[in-house]
């Protein structure tokens, strides 16, 4: 049987004034989280809003979830609003099981739409 090709995490950061959208693609798993965390962490003091767009994310493990929690915490410390957009079924279930769904503000709930 051929091995399944595992798509690693890639992301783009689109800044617009004092806000940014981080579009994630692939798998947010152990070994892929630190680069995204560091890139976004350095932007937080300069921004008022960060939206993490997860539409093209296929899987999140505990390390990925931990990175989102760390970013959320750092954003709050710097006075930056932190939102998640396009939660997939798997991540939504993980957030529900860990009682974090209500903690993370979802951008759709605040009228933020990314085309």
From TrEMBL:
<dbReference type="InterPro" id="IPR036513">
    <property type="entry name" value="STAS_dom_sf"/>
</dbReference>
<dbReference type="GO" id="GO:0043856">
    <property type="term" value="F:anti-sigma factor antagonist activity"/>
</dbReference>
<dbReference type="InterPro" id="IPR003658">
    <property type="entry name" value="Anti-sigma_ant"/>
</dbReference>
<feature type="domain" description="STAS">
    <location>
        <begin position="9"/>
        <end position="115"/>
    </location>
</feature>
<dbReference type="InterPro" id="IPR002645">
    <property type="entry name" value="STAS_dom"/>
</dbReference>
<comment type="similarity">
    <text>Belongs to the anti-sigma-factor antagonist family.</text>
</comment>
<dbReference type="Pfam" id="PF01740">
    <property type="entry name" value="STAS"/>
</dbReference>
<protein>
    <recommendedName>
        <fullName>Anti-sigma factor antagonist</fullName>
    </recommendedName>
</protein>
